[in-house]
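Why do we bother with holo predictions? Because pocket geometry can differ from the apo form. Keep that in mind while you read this record for phosphoric acid mono(formamide)ester.
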Amino acid sequence: MAESPFVGRSLTAIRDFNRQERLYLYRLTRRLKEALAAGDSAAIDHFRINDPDFGMYEIFLEDSTRTRESFKNAGLFHRIKLSELNAASSSFNKKESYADTIANLVGYGNRVFVLRTALEGVCRHLAERTARYTERHGMTGGVSFLNAGDGRHEHPTQELLDEFTFLEDLDWSAERIHLALVGDLYHGRTVHSKVHGLDLFSEVLVDLVAPPELAMPRNYVRAMEDQGFTVREFPSIRAYLDGAQAGRRAGARGVRAGAADGSHDAEPGVAPQWYFTRPQLERMGDRILRRADELRSAITFTPDLVSEVDPATRFYHPLPRHREYPTIPAELDDTPLNAWERQSANGYLVRVVLLALVAGHLGDDYDGPVGAEYLPDEPYAEEVPVAAGTPKRYSEGVRPISDGLVVDHICRGDTPEEIRRHVATVQEVVGLHGRGGEWVSTGRNGEAKGILFRPGFGPLTQRHIGMLAATVPGATINVIEHGAVRRKIRLVSPRRIFGISALRCRNPACITNPDHGEPVLPRFVRTGPDRYACEYCSHDHGFKELFS
Ligand code: CP
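The structure, written out:
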């Protein structure tokens, strides 16, 4: 029998499982749900790992009910070895690192770790570090890290159960979704997971309903638009209902309804599926807290609004609801809007199937693409032919340069102050110390650029070229020999930037932040012109912010 391609896999962010893999997981979950409803014990047993030596560990450094308990119940279903680390009395208090802690627990035969942390990117870090541990000890089969929510970053197993429930309400069609995201879109990690999770659907229309103080971070909005999602924004539920009113006649259909000819309306109206998130105003300081009532009211669906939405509309919520200030009041529990209770119950089923997959118990019949759909690396340096005839000569002031390096066109178009600052950083990062100087020159068109001269520098290695591409993309490296330019290399922004000790993620909650004392350097992936996201926590950076 072929080995399951899911065995030992981690789910650190929703993109770790590609679209086909997630659809496969949902097909299995649907089968499990039907088997349970029918009481078909043979079909139910098919899903069970049934191995008392297979170890799953829960490590919750933040509070949880649903995620921790549904995983625990899923573990009990599977009849596997279940453990929970008492983090409050563990050697975390003696400054033991995450990687060391986990290495010990892997040594005790545990294969799945479910972690909730305030630090972001922990699971990705642990998946990488533990792979080295298992290799050192000749262990096979892999160790899985399932992110049960990391700070403001992601909650990918919640995303799985959300997507499963959306599909259930769309008659299992992944063709199109029109979803309103309502609430605290700034802090809510469950909505951040939707930025890439909703790529499950071929056509996506997202309505973001939140006052500016709680709005979705711009980099996430850009990422949705870059994937072809249609995104609309509204500052409150009232504004949403009013603003989308114009298209309501034609557009606001029930979840299962659609135009008879399969077409979609130009004006989509109000979404038939609404996803609420809990306001986390306590994280936002006194100024915001003074306006708490006003902000909560903008994202609370009061019972008098029921008549303004289509009766087939469904509401979802990752829960918990605040018992004093619920954004979906308890009066709505007995209405057809209530999909959040079924959504929560689905969390248990989805996690049963996820555990069966990463344990290698299920999945051997999956025949789609495997793994994350990350873009491949691409060239970051282009060798430019040196002009025929007399090669160009460079002088530093009045002195011609005989041998060495000239990096030209640095930060073209920035202000002279910005250029000087960045050139100083580049020298530190790349280690271009030594003789020579740095200039800012201004062209006839008034545009400034930096030039860095290093007479005597050499030889130029591939590592230097990579570091310069990472630090001064758009610049040109000139290699001078015997007084003339012999090589010219044009640099472009690399897709990924990593392996440079001066790299810093600016997110204080990122696992790579040196304040946390975990020995891990950040890596960055390009998300747009001059923009990079940390591969651990997804925090968005302007290019020049990447270096300490
Ligand atoms: N939905 C969710 O993550 O709930 P808990 O915080 O209770 O786990």
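The pocket of phosphoric acid mono(formamide)ester is lined by residues 64-67, 149, 155, 158, 318-320 (CB under 6 Å).
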